[in-house]
Amino acid sequence: MTTIPQTTHASRTAGIPSILKTAVINALVALVLFSLMVGIRTEAGSDGQLTYWTRFGELASLVAVVFGGSIVIELLRQWIGPSGAERLVPPAVHTGMAFVGRFLAPALLIFALLVPVIFYNQRYILDLAILVLTYVMLGWGLNVVVGLAGLLDLGYVAFYAVGAYSYALLATNFGWSFWVCLPLAGILAAFWGMLLGFPVLRLRGDYLAIVTLAFGEIIRLVIINWQELTGGPNGVSGIPRPTLLGIPLDNSDDGLAAKLGIEYSPTHRIVFLFYLILAMALLTNWVTIRLRRLPIGRAWEALREDEVACRALGINTTSTKLTAFATGAMFGGFAGAFFATRQGFISPESFTFQESALVLAIVVLGGMGSQLGVALAALTMIGGFELFRGLETYRMLVFGMAMVLIMIWRPRGLIGHRAPTVFLTKAKAISSDLVKEGHG
Amino acid sequence: MDYFAQQLINGLVLGSIYGLIAIGYTMVYGIVGMINFAHGDIFMIGGFIALITFLILISLGLTAIPVILLVVLLVSMAITALYGWTIERIAYRPLRHSFRLAPMLSAIGMSFVLTNYSQVAQGARVKPIPPFITGGYTLHESPDGFVIQLSNIQIMVVVTTIVLLAIFTWLVSRTRLGRDMRACEQDQTMAALLGVNVDRTISMTFVIGAALAAVAGLMYLLYYGLVDFFMGFVAGIKAFTAAVLGGIGSLPGAMLGGLAIGLIETFWSAYFSVEYKDVAAFSILIVVLIFMPTGLLGRPEVEKV
Question: Which CATH number applies to A98-434: 1.20.1250, 1.10.3470, 2.30.30, 3.30.420?
Answer without folding.
Answer: 1.10.3470
